[in-house]
Amino acid sequence: MSDTLLNVKNLKLQFDTEAGIVQALDGVTFDIKKNEAVGIVGESGCGKTITSHAILRIYPFNAKITSGEILYKGHDLLDFSEKQMRKVRGANIALTFQDPMSSLNPVFTIADQLIDVIQLHKKCSPEEAREIAIEQMKKVGISDPETRIDEYPHQFSGGMRQRIILARAFALEPDLLIADEPTTALDVTIQAQVLEIIKNLREQYGMSLMLITHDLGVVAEITERVHVFYGGNVVESGLTKEVFQSPKHPYTKALISSIPSLAQDRTELDVIPGNVPQLINPPTGCRFNPRCAYKQDKCEIDKPELQIYNTRKVACHFTNEIENGTIS
Ligand SMILES: Nc1ncnc2c1ncn2[C@@H]1O[C@H](COP(=O)(O)OP(=O)(O)OP(=O)(O)O)[C@@H](O)[C@H]1O
Ligand SMILES: [Mg+2]
To answer: Residue 309: inside a domain, yes or no?
Structure first.
């Protein structure tokens, strides 16, 4: 039996906007194995959030998937009916949104929001669902859950709200939790606590994790593999340790060396020159070429596909030449 849980292949998604077509995902390819924690990293606007929304088919009306496959346990979610997708959301794949305020409805109590979701997916009475909800609140470290479950979101701090969102996600025991920037809006000390909860519960339930974050330190700490996004493509995939210790794609090299604690042999930070590409009129060939220190003519013409390079995958025409120093 395959140990792959999710296999996203050559996913293309575009937005129809007044200014023109935005090719937000330009052939995204990556996989997540059963019981594996995977990090998704890359600069703002590179398509991390929209990829997760595409997986659950919750993208806005002006978005359209034009090609690709999203295989979940071997079945293409793009072929699922809306009714089938409703079952997948939450029960099989849970998502915690990047914007924590949009995850909880301010006019309903925590009980309303947890019990409803639990009842929707598990055949149980409201009383049983309430018990499950309280149990989950305990697991994420909310004290006095028997009372607090009847309070409203605004009565909780940001960190506590994020715990409630996680409690709801874990209550359904999904196979995969997609956490989109779960700690970005939180204080540093609270960030560590929330990460600890994700780490512990994931291990306890044996679920896979797709962790979307700007924080490479967090990725280094809790993920086994990492997929690096750039301009609507995956440009490098591999074991987190290997990718961070010796990045191969020029974008990953620049990304890692811009983080002081990860770039061990550096005394000063590299800033990646240029900006994230305009996706309405993106660069031809490799989308990273205008910013790439190793750019060759071919890079403006041909788009590099992800290719196996030792134990990882890299989307660059010149990985070998850069590695052996023929291009520098
Ligand atoms: N509703 C929309 N209409 C048009 N373009 C959109 C829409 N939503 C997102 N995009 C574009 O799609 C691209 C990918 O956006 P996405 O939100 O997935 O980026 P991200 O990697 O999650 O960024 P961040 O790190 O800032 O969260 C961006 O260029 C963005 O401008
Ligand atoms: Mg995002």
So the answer is: no
The answer to whether residue 2 sits within a structural domain is no
Q: What is the CATH number of the domain that holds 178?
A: 3.40.50.300
What are the CA-CA distances from residue 61 to residues 15, 54, 57, 58 (Å)? 9, 12, 11, 9
- How far is ligand 2, taken at its centre, from the CA of residue 43, in Å? 9
How many CB atoms are closer than 10 A to CB 125? 9
Residue from 94, 90, 164 nearest 134 by CA: 164
Task: Report the number of distinct structural domains present in the chain.
Answer: 1
Name the residue range of residue 105's domain: 35-45+80-227
Q: Which atom of ligand 1 is nearest to the CA of 17?
A: 4
- pTM tops 0.85, yes or no: yes
Q: Whose CA is nearest to atom 24 of ligand 1?
A: 44
The protein residue with its alpha carbon nearest to ligand 1, atom 26, reads 44
Structure tokens at 73: 């346990």
Tell me whether residue 8 is in a domain.
no
pLDDT by position in tens, the chain (length 328):
579 999 999 999 999 998 889 999 999 999 999 999 999 999 999 999 999 999 999 989 999 999 999 999 999 999 999 999 999 998 899 999 887 677 889 999 999 999 988 998 888 999 999 999 999 999 999 999 999 999 999 999 988 999 999 999 999 899 999 999 998 888 888 889 999 999 999 999 999 999 999 889 999 999 999 999 999 999 999 999 999 999 999 999 999 988 766 655 544 445 666 666 667 888 999 999 999 999 999 999 999 999 999 999 999 999 999 999 998 7
Looking at the domain assignment, is residue 273 inside a domain? no
Contacts (Cβ under 8 Å, ≥6 apart) of 118: 124, 129, 132, 133, 171, 172
Ligand sitting nearest the alpha carbon of 48? 1
